[in-house]
Structure formats: C-alpha cells, structure tokens
Amino acid sequence: MRTSWDTSIKHLARHGLLSDILSIEQIASIPSSNLSRWRHESDSKYLYSEINEIIKQEIEFIKRMNQSSKIKKINESYFKLADTFHHVISNIKGVKSILKSQKELIVNTIDSIVDTVPINNALKLFNISRTTYQNYKTIVIHKCEASYFKWYTRRFSNQLLVKEVSTIKSYLPNDDYRHWSKSCIYLRAIRDNTLSCGLSTFYKYCRLLGFSNLKTFKKADGYNPLETSRPNEVWCADVTIFKTQDHIKHYIHILMDHYSKKIIGYRIEGFSSGKAIRSLLQNAYKKSRPKNTVFLTDGGSENVNTTVSSLLKSYNDTITHRVAQRDVLFSNSMIEAFNKVLKHQFLYPRTISNRTSLENVMREVIPIYNSVRPQLRLGGNTPDETFNGKPINFNQYSDCFKAQKAIRIVLNKQNSCRSCS
C-alpha cells in the first residue's frame, strides 16, 4: 500500500522546518526522494498556500522564544503568577478580602520573580496598587512586638494601640453584651469612655479578632419607611409569639414610641388580646397625655376591634388609629424589627422554662433595652434618653476621636520594639 504524507509535512520540508517539529527517527522514515521533491516545489502549486506563511511565522516565533532563555523565564514567571492568583481566589467570593488574607503568599511570589517580570505587571494580575503591595510587604517582613497584630507601628502609626484592641476584645464576649448587635456594643464602649475610634475601625478589628458580622439584607427597592420627628408622634403596637420550654405559646403585646424606639408598655397573655392592647394604651395615655398621636398597627383582630376603638373615641381624637398598608402606605416595620431584637438578643439566648420565667426575664430585659443599650439610629442615645428629649447627635461622643488619633500616632511612632529600632 502506497504511503500518503500530510500536506503540512510537505510545507515544513519546503521551508526547512522539519527538524523543529519532527524527531530524527521520524525524518529518517521519509524517503529522501520525497524530501528532495518537496524542497523544490513552489508554494503556488497548492491553492490558498498563503495560509502556510502564517504558520511559518508562528513557528518562527516559537523558535525565537525557545532560543531566548530570558523570554522563557518571563513566561514561566507569568504562569507562576497566574497559578498563584487562581490558587488564592478559587472557590471563594470576595477577592479583595482573600488577597489581604494571603498577603504573605503574594509578597513571596512576586519577590521570587521580580528579576524577570516587572513588579507593576505582576501587581496588575492581582489588581493591587504599588502602595498596597508595599504595605503587605512591610507587614510580612516587619514583626513589631509593640503591635497587637505584629504590624510595623512606625509605618502603620494609625493602628489601634494594644490597649484599645484589648478593650474591643473584652467587650465582644462579655456576657452582658454577648448577643447585642456590634453597633450597640461599640456605642456602649464609646459611652463608657473606654474606646475612642470610628465605627468602621471597630468593625475592622472585630473581623480581625474573629468576631464575624451577622448576615445583612438589602432593603427592597422603593422601600419608604415611616419617619417621625418627636416623641409621642406615633405609637406602634404589635404582638409577637414566644414559646417557652414547657411548649406553651405566650403572646407578648408591645407598645412602642416610634421616634425614640422606647418600649412604653408590654403585656404577656395566653392569646392575642384586644383587652391587652387597650390596657397598654390606657397606661401610656395616663403617663404622657399626648396630642395628635397616631396609633399604628397591623390589621390583626387584637388591634381592630370595638374594645380598642371605644377607648380611642373617649380620648376625643387625640389618638388616631391607622392600619399599616391599608390606611397608610408604610408598614409597621419598626416594631417588627424590635420583635426580632427582643427574641434573638434577649430571649433565645436564655433558658426560659415557663410563663413565670418569661415574665421575670421581660422585667429585666426591657429596662436594659430602654436605658442601657445605646442605638446607632439614635446617635448613641438609649431610647429613654431620646424619649426624654436628649438630641440625637453622635458628635457628642465622636468629637474626641481626632485627639485620640493624634495620641495613637505619637505612641505608635515612639514604640520601643527591638525589631523596629
């Protein structure tokens, strides 16, 4: 049977490229008469032979690359960078956070190829700036004994002092605040004058200390919450159900002042009760004697009934009942948010065996919520403070932050760490 040769073999022979592609044994298997004939053939013998010129150029390029040890090293270095990058980000979301956590690997890799790959090109692959890289390198190389996290204090002079980091660390697992939101713990420390830094800094160090944030949810498009400007402008009421360990459901009826978020009354019943709502309104009215107050609820039977409506009529329209998303566009979300806080930060973490136990816990936690636990939306105030007229103004706590920052920078730059001197 006659042997047929691939056209590409003829082209390689015609341009003297066989030895670049085939082994000596493969070339020896081709008859010399064939090789001689192919070498003397004209390119014009084959239609569209011009495509072979492109192939020839590619082969010449490969030859030049293989002949240049420098180019070969550069390619190997880029492949090493790419492999490292993919190793860092594989199967994980949040590339920037991951890059920060892998700074030592990145620094060591770039340093190992810096003789063959320009450092700016290497940094482009990781999408980090030269300044960020230098910061990474400083952290990796310099281990400062005067820093809580061993960061070079003279370069990162704005980092929190060891005492400040220790303060954050002492508040987070504290049994009194263990189930509070991080913003409330932050405000508690600020108000106690034991910490002086911004909220974002506090969150950063919480993360560094291993205290992760709770999952947050984006507000729906078009969400327009109710806004109030004074105490007793709007009262919100709702009922939330809590089951104790004896498997009995308890209905906690709550009345809240919308502006201050103060709980102005609550009652625990074995069922959803209009009489309970009426009682909460009566007690609140006696204490505050409000004028032009809106009573906001959902459309539940405990709120919309003759027991409640007859009471409101007796107040000569000083309190007007409105049903959320029926009489007004907005929802009763403020008190619904409180229900989650009540359960997740105050009730679920405790062992509550029966109604008596629940009543005891509620007598303890409502004063804590109203008078002890500061809130970010209230500018660092507690609900009681805002209800009683204290302005919502976080500057009363943050004005000293700049002075503390200046002190921090001076102390960090003057540290006596042996490795930094």
Which descriptors apply to this entry?
20 helices; alpha/beta; about 50% helix; 4 domains; single chain; 5-stranded mixed beta sheet
Can you put this structure into words, describing what you see?
With 421 residues, the protein is an alpha/beta fold. It folds into four domains: 7-67, no CATH class; 72-141, no CATH class; 160-213 and 389-421, no CATH class; 234-386, Ribonuclease H-like superfamily/Ribonuclease H (Nucleotidyltransferase, domain 5, 2-Layer Sandwich), CATH 3.30.420.10. Helix content is 50%, strand content 9%. A five-stranded mixed beta sheet has the order 3-2-1-4-5, with helices on both faces. α6 (69-89) runs antiparallel to α8. The mean pLDDT is 84.
Question: Quick summary of this structure?
Answer:
The chain has 421 residues and is of the alpha/beta class. The protein is 50% helix and 9% strand.
Mean residue pLDDT: 84
Radius of gyration: 37 Å
CATH topology of the largest domain: Nucleotidyltransferase, domain 5
Cα distance spanning the termini: 85 Å
Q: How does the helix and strand content classify structurally? A: alpha/beta
Strand order of the largest sheet: 3-2-1-4-5
3D shape: elongated
Poorly predicted runs of 5 or more residues:
none
Under CATH, the homologous superfamily of the largest domain reads Ribonuclease H-like superfamily/Ribonuclease H
User: What is the CATH C-level name of the largest domain?
Assistant: Alpha Beta
Main beta sheet strand tally, sense and closure: 5 strands, mixed
| Second rung of CATH, namely the architecture of the largest domain | 2-Layer Sandwich
Helix % is: 40-55%
